Structure formats: C-alpha cells, structure tokens
Request: fold
Amino acid sequence: MQALDALTRAARALADGARVSGPAQTEAARQMQICNACRYCEGFCAVFPAMTRRLEFGKADIHFLANLCHDCGACLHACQYAPPHAFAVNVPQAMARVRVQTYTDYAWPPPLGKLYQRNGLTVSLALLLGLALFLFLAMLSQGAPWNVPAGAGFYGIFPHTVLVLLFAPVFLFSTLALGMGVRRFWRDLTPATSGAPLTRSAAVQAADAVLRLKYLDGGHGAGCHNEDDAHTLSRRRLHHCTFYGFLLCFAATSVATLYHYVLGLAAPYDWPSLPKVLGVAGGVSLLVGTAGLGWLNLRRHPLHGDAAQKPMDRGFMALLFFTSASGLALWLCRGTPAMPLVLCLHLAAVMALFATLPYGKFAHGIFRSAALLRHCVEQRQPGKWDAP
Reply:
C-alpha cells in the first residue's frame, strides 16, 4: 500500500509539471519519460538501468543521467521514436546539452565557466598564444636566449624556481576550482541516488568502468557510432590513447619532481631515463589520441551530441595536441637554436591547458566518474518502488 501511495504521489507530481527547470533539463526529462515507457535500450549502458529506478526526473536526476551518458549513439540508432518521428527522441543529444549546462552550473568561479562554454576553442588558442608571447618577451628581457650554455637545457633559459612560481599557482587554482565544482556536484547527486555511502565494492566497479571505458562499446562490444549507423571501436581506442597518454605525461612530471627534490638529479634527463620514457610514450599516445578524436569530431553525425559543445571539445583537444606536439618537439630540438622558442610554446600550452581544465572537456571525465560512483552505489540499494 505504501508503494502504491508513493507511485500516486509521483504521478501527481508529473501531472503538475513539478520536474525540472531549464529547457535542456526539461527536454531531457521528457525524453526519459518516453524511454521509461519503452525500455528497448535497457541493456545498452548505465543510463537506462538508472532511469528505470525513477518515475520523475528532477534536476539532480537529469544531471546524474546526463553524466552517465557516454554519447555512444547506440540508443539513437536503435530508437523507433528518433527523428523524424514526432516524439523526436534523441537521448545522446539531449544529454550532451545537459552536460554542457552541468559544467557551467558547477563551475567555480561561475563566470569563467560561462566564458569557456561559449568560446572554448577561441579562448584556448588566445590563451596559448598570449602566454607564449609573454614568455618569449620575458625570455628576451634576460638576454639572447640562443646563447644557452651547453648542457644547461631549458633551465638555462628559465630557472627552476621561475618555472615553479609560474606553474604552481595555475596548478593549485585548477585543482581548487575543479575540486569545488565536483564537491557541489557530488553533494547534489548523493540524495538523488539513494543517499547511501560509498563502498569499496562500488568504487572497484566504477573504477573498472572508467579505466576500460566500458560504456563506449555500444552495449554489445562492437563499439559505438560516429558518422553513420556503423559500429566502430575507434572512439574507444582513441579515448584510451588520450586518457592514458595524459596519465603517462603526468607520471613523467611527477617522477621528474621526485628526481629533482629527493634524489637531487636536475633536468634535462637523458634517454632512457624513466621521466623521458614516460614522457615520450605519453606524448606520442596523446598526439595520436587527440588527432584521431579531432578527425572523428569533424565527421560526427549532426544528430550525435550537441553542436554548441563542439568549440569546447575542440579547444580542449587542441590544447592537448599542442602540449604533446610541443613537448616532443622540445625533446627533438634540444641543443639547437630553435629550443627557446619551442620551450615558450610548450610552457604556454601546458599553462593554458591547466588553466582551462575545470571548465571544459576534462571536467566531463571527473563528473562522469563521480556519476558512475553514485550509480554503482545506487545499484546496491533496494529500488525506490520495490514493495517493503
């Protein structure tokens, strides 16, 4: 009887329109109600099992489902109500529009999130070029940069202390801004996903889904879609190249920091030292991943994703590409007159990348991981509408 009363109250709330605010969230909620009645795509990804646990879709529920969506396109190509049907169900596009709103709603400080959302590619390239010019002028003010002593490396151009003073504030600000946004996101998601605490088994399951990009397999292992209804594993593989390439580059920087402060070994490091091996492997993987994803993004079917999000996506991919390309070029031109200019470009790309991390495509990986954690927690709880 209690379950019937709960269902009645939920139905009345839906009839009164007490669901969400905002056009993107409202449209996503409309489509979720249609999908909840159909359930043909229930086994495709995490979105649909999570959807079936709900009769109404509030703002937190929609943000939760949107960040579970990997935009694989499988449900769009399988849907009998997809455009040009009058119902116009396009879950990947609806969820992409909500995700963009998520980055803005939870951005800290909020004005920076709105600026990057509207002009992601322009902001990224302008920041890169502006920082490169600033570094080059600072380098010129200290004398002729091409007269670097042999064996001094890039510390002969920018001393280690100067680099720390340049990068530490950017890194700390990026970490703080991203942490503040995810903290607010998690706080809103927790009561909407049973409110149960995180467990070790749920964390292990979510980590497995994140590290394997489980939900980019289309729900059947053959892959997702890009420019047509053919299945492809390209997006999953290129995402892996980008993700693990970034981790390898970060690991190279972390190991180099230990070498410098713990072992007293200053850069530059010769091949095949651990920082160099990790950095080169990560740089090549990043280069391949971002170039491939950029090409797929240009060819993507217009019904996949959100066109308004493309500048943000391309801005992030461009910064990752320039970071990896300039890093590899810096290694190859070491000891040549071109090294100072390439160093300025590389440092500017890294600084611009970290300055924009909390507001663009990188944030989606963190928000998605948080959503998957809450999904794995919610799966272990009794269904909201189960009889007592």
